[in-house]
């Protein structure tokens, strides 16, 4: 819209912020290839032995806009994709949607890690915006981290109870389809 067509007293659109604990600009453990990993702040699961306990409190973290995150992603030509992790990204689903939509428009694939299961994220008690965010993701690693099931052989997962779900194939087939690289 041209500048002069907006009323003089119209409020400027304010971009919603995302609360993050950190980012990893060249992660090789959060999905295939070099990935830009966003560690969201806040997690209700409090899994014993979690690799990122500093992300559990909902207080703290740093406020960033979707545009700022996308600018960070663009800084490296090596990025294959974006990974949402945490904390619990689906606790901030509404705030993450504009970032993920823009990243997909630019050709990045998107993985999300969640302590919720796919069934919880698609069920009636899902966090606000979970279905919309899930629809923008390519892969979901779901389920809580279980320390007794931790294994270095669990590709892309912290524990063997977690699933690496191919979301496009799952949506198409109507049943859970696991990701195969």
Give the topology, please:
Layout: E1 18-27, E2 35-40, E3 62-64, H1 66-74, E4 81-85, H2 93-105, E5 109-113, H3 118-121, H4 130-136, E6 139-142, E7 163-166, H5 167-173
Shape: globular
Q: Which quaternary structure do these chains form? A: single chain
List SSEs in N-to-C order.
EEEHEHEHHEEH
Helix content: 10-25%
Q: Residue-averaged pLDDT, rounded?
A: 92
Number of strand segments: 7
Instruction: Report the total helices.
Output: 5
> Terminal Cα separation, in Å?
43 Å
Side by side, the strands of the main sheet go 3-1-2-4-5-6-7
* Estimated share of beta-strand residues: 15-25%
Q: Which class do the helix and strand fractions yield?
A: alpha/beta
Low-confidence stretches: 1-6
Give the biggest beta sheet.
7 strands, mixed
Q: What is the alpha-carbon Rg in Å?
A: 17 Å
Walk me through the structure.
- The chain is α/β, with parallel strands linked by helices.
- Helices cover 22% and strands 20% of the residues.
- The protein has five helices and seven strands, in the order βββαβαβααββα.
- It has helices at 66-74, 93-105, 118-121, 130-136, 167-173; strands at residues 18-27, 35-40, 62-64, 81-85, 109-113, 139-142, 163-166.
- A seven-stranded mixed beta sheet has the order 3-1-2-4-5-6-7.
- The longest helix is centred in the middle third of the chain and has 13 residues, at 93-105.
- The N and C termini lie far apart (43 Å).
């Amino acid at each position: 819209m041209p500048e002069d067509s907006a009323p003089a007293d119209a409020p400027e659109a304010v971009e919603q912020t995302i609360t993050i604990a950190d980012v990893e600009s060249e992660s090789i453990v959060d999905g295939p290839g070099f990935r830009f990993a966003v560690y969201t702040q806040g997690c209700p699961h409090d899994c014993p032995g979690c690799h990122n306990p500093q992300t559990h409190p909902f207080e703290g973290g740093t406020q960033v806009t979707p545009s700022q995150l996308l600018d960070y992603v663009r800084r490296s030509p090596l990025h294959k994709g974006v990974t949402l992790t945490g904390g619990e990204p689906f606790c901030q689903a509404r705030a993450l949607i504009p970032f993920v939509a823009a990243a997909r428009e630019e050709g990045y694939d998107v993985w999300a890690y969640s302590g919720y299961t796919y069934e919880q994220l698609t069920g009636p008690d899902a966090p606000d915006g979970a279905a919309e965010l899930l629809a923008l993701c390519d892969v979901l690693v779901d389920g809580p981290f279980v320390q007794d099931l931790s294994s270095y052989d669990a590709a892309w997962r912290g524990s063997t109870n977690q699933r690496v779900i191919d979301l496009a194939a799952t949506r198409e087939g109507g049943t859970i389809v696991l990701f195969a690289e």
